[in-house]
UniProtKB/TrEMBL annotation:
GO molecular-function term, one example from the UniProt record: oxidoreductase activity
Stored NCBIfam families: hi_GC_TIGR00026
Domain of life: Bacteria
Protein name: Deazaflavin-dependent oxidoreductase (Nitroreductase family)
Species the sequence originates in: Oryzihumus leptocrescens
């Protein structure tokens, strides 16, 4: 059992160290690893009831193909705030910004969202639960995506 936990602990330690370092090459290694290995697994659970991760469904800005990306979506008044630990140049974010809309699936509920805007962390922290201040500092999250939920009907 110890030998199974060792690689997991090492990966977690690398993740935390890379994110805290702010080093673009190290953060990109983590981002690519998540994109190719973790995200496909996470997408099986993201957006489901009783799971922490949400799912952003968006359309490719060049291909027009539908995509889904696991994220953390924090409900705020009028919509959601989504932390951007890998920065503001990730593909899914560029797709959402180009389309001006997306769907956030959180806790088994689909939410149509519009008006995506990237904002500095300071602009969001007063609107999210207090523990996000600590997470934002620990992982050096500089920006968040703020989206507005479309009122049903």
């Amino acid at each position: 059992m110890r030998w199974v936990l060792l690689p997991v602990a090492a990966a977690l330690a690398f993740f935390v160290a890379a994110m805290r370092s702010g080093s673009r090459p190290l953060v990109d290694i983590v981002r690519q690893g998540n994109k190719r290995v973790l995200n496909p697994v996470m997408l099986r659970l993201a957006g489901r009831r009783h799971w922490y991760a949400a799912r952003v469904e968006h359309v490719g800005r060049r291909s027009g193909r539908p995509y889904a990306t696991p994220v953390v979506a924090v409900p705020v008044e009028g919509g959601f705030a989504i932390p951007l630990p890998y920065g503001d140049q990730v593909d899914w974010l560029r797709n959402v910004l180009a389309a001006g809309e997306a769907t956030v699936v959180l806790d088994g509920v689909r939410h149509q969202v519009t008006q995506p805007v990237v904002v500095p962390s300071e602009a969001v922290l007063a609107t999210v639960p207090p523990d996000w201040g600590t997470r934002t500092r620990v992982y050096r999250i500089q920006h968040w995506l703020r989206v507005s939920e479309v009122s049903p009907g």
